[in-house]
Each structure stands twice: as structure tokens, then as C-alpha cells.
Amino acid sequence: MIEERPPPLVEMRDMRVSFGGVHAVDGVSIELYPGEIHALVGGNGAGKSTLVKTLSGAQRADSGTIVIDDEQVDIHGPIDAKKHGVETIYQTLALADNIDAVGNMFLGRELTTPLGNLDDSSMEDATRKIMGRLNPKFENFKASVASLSGGQRQSVAIARAVHFNARILIMDEPTAALGPAETDQVRQLIRQLKAEGLGIILISHDIHDVFDLADRISVMLQGRLVGTVNKDDVSVDDVLAMIIIGKTPEELTQREIAELRG
Prior knowledge:
6-stranded mixed β-sheet, 34% helix, Rossmann fold, alpha/beta, 10 strands
């Protein structure tokens, strides 16, 4: 008996974004399911970042429909996205380097006492609780995040998103510039979020990240969707061909395959 798949967390239907005469996103449709890591890949200028910015509220689409939990939604900015459980972790992480993990966790969403003062103890307790769940080895709660390692900084950014009830997480190059040990740490953290039922859109140029983490892979080229494939049904060469040539494995000729392999 085939197990029935749950409804998508998100559906992006026929999304279009143009800048002048350039179609940055041209009729792209993808969906994301609970507990799924859906990788979005393509070369520079493929349109993948522009596409996810329409979901995060950083970019208005010219047309198209976004459906979350089977309900069409209007996302006019990041506040709208957050209301629908969409959080984004950009490659830059958007952390304030001069303050500590607790301050970054609640930056712009600080807790206050009944008298209107900052409730530092409650914020620290909440930070220790979420970090204990996500990264028990994290101990540098009082250090400025500028002094933390890349993996620890990622942990802070991810914890902030999860604490504020993210159900849909957009991750842009989460292991960029990390060493092997820190990369493994972040990958394990992403797997844990998947196990907890979050849906994750993963943007990455690292094909090893993609094949290590993703359930499905969508490839974009020049603003269009080349195709979406199950990771287990394709090889690295198949996906590279989609990125470079713009054809799905079924569409490739033997000559194109041979030329790709050099």
C-alpha cells in the first residue's frame, strides 16, 4: 500500500518576476511538503534567489499564486511571511555582530516585564532552551556573535527562526565558508529540523550538500524551471546536466551526456 502524502505546506504557482525586460522568474511552480528538504539549484542568475524572495516577502511577484496550508495568501513583505510561519536564513545570517546570542535571538522581538523593562532572564532562559534542543554543545551565550565560529553563528540564526514558530524555512547557502566539521554540524541540524516536520527550501551551489540533504531537487535556468526530480532517482551528473544544458535526464541525448562528461 502506497502511503498517502500529506498536503503541501507551500505551493508557489506560475510565479513571475521581471526587472525591466528581463524575466528573472518566468512561470515557475514548486511545492514544499512537511518534513521535506527541497533543494533549489542553478547557476548564477538562474532566478532561484528571486523566486524564494517572493515567498520571504523581500520581493513582490508580478504575478502568480502562493498557497500556504491550502489557503491562498498575500505576502507583501517579511512581516506577512513571518505571520505565515516563513523564516529566511540568508547567507549573511543577518546577525548583529556586537551583541550576544540572546540579544540576536530576540532582536526586534524583545520580551519585556510588566513594567516595560527588558526581561533579560526570560530571553536567556528561552535561548538556552531552544539551543539545548538544537545544539546542546553550544555554551557561548554571553559572547558577541562576532567571536563565534561559523557553525555556531548558523546555530544562532536557525534557533532564532525556529523559536518564532517557523514551519517553512528558507536556507541560502547554509554551509558556505564552513570547514568540514562545522559543515557536518550544520547538516545534522538541518536533518533534525526535517525530522521535526519543518519544510526546508535549500539554496545551494554545493552539489554534495544537495545530495546529502535534499529529498527533491528543482533546477532553474534563466528564470525557468528545468524540472523537479527525486534525489534518489538521479545522479550528480543528471543534475549537473539539468543545470548546464537545461534538460531533464529523459530529454538528454547520448551525445550531450558524452560532451558533459568531457
